[in-house]
Amino acid sequence: MALRAPCPMLLLPLVLLLACLALASGQPCFTQNRLFITHHVNNPRTLAPNPRAYCSIMMRRRRIYGKLINTFIHEINKVCTTDGVASGPYKFESKNPFNITICTFNPWSISYTGVSVSEKIVISCWNALPVFYVKNR
């Protein structure tokens, strides 16, 4: 009796099952957390002569293109655990203000302008990790 090649119709459910197990393992949470850190965390703050230069440097360095507004957080805190207050499903507001820089794209000059402020932030968390920047207050 000769061996037969695997049936493609049987392989599809197996591949889908493996994909579901990979998603359930928590890997996407860590991927989202890394993306959050890349797009929003700069601690310690990169030195620049002014907020406009800072935004130009950081947006280029982090390869964030075409985003109209991006906020960089210059401190690390445990907003998702002890230093935040739940403010909605998966959302936490910081108890204390953070030093942040808000970068806004100007389409006329094709550059970023920036403003540095100290405000509370709201972020989305999953498994006690920040995964999405919601807003500042």
Q: What's the arrangement of secondary structure elements?
A:
Layout: H1 8-24, H2 27-40, H3 51-61, E1 69-73, E2 84-88, E3 91-94, E4 98-106, E5 111-119, E6 121-126, E7 129-136
Antiparallel strand pairs: 1-4, 2-3, 3-6, 4-5, 6-7
InterPro entries: RNaseA, RNaseA-like_dom_sf, RNaseA_domain
GO cellular component, one term: extracellular region
Domain Ribonuclease A-domain: 29-137
Low-confidence stretches are 14-23
What's the number of domains?
1
User: In CATH terms, what is the fold-level topology?
Assistant: P-30 Protein
Q: How does the overall form come out from the CA principal axes?
A: globular
Total strands: the figure is: 7
Radius of gyration: 21 Å
Structure annotation, total helices: 3
Integer average pLDDT: 82
Beta content comes to 25-35%
Structural class: alpha+beta
Give the spatial strand order of the biggest sheet: 2-3-6-7
Describe the protein:
This protein has 137 residues and is of the alpha+beta class. It has one domain (27-136): Ribonuclease A-like domain (P-30 Protein, Roll). Helices cover 31% and strands 34% of the residues. The protein is built from 3 helices and 7 strands. It has helices spanning 8-24, 27-40, 51-61; strands at residues 69-73, 84-88, 91-94, 98-106, 111-119, 121-126, 129-136. A 4-stranded antiparallel sheet has the order 2-3-6-7. It has a 3-stranded antiparallel sheet with strand order 1-4-5. The model is unreliable at 14-23 (pLDDT under 50).
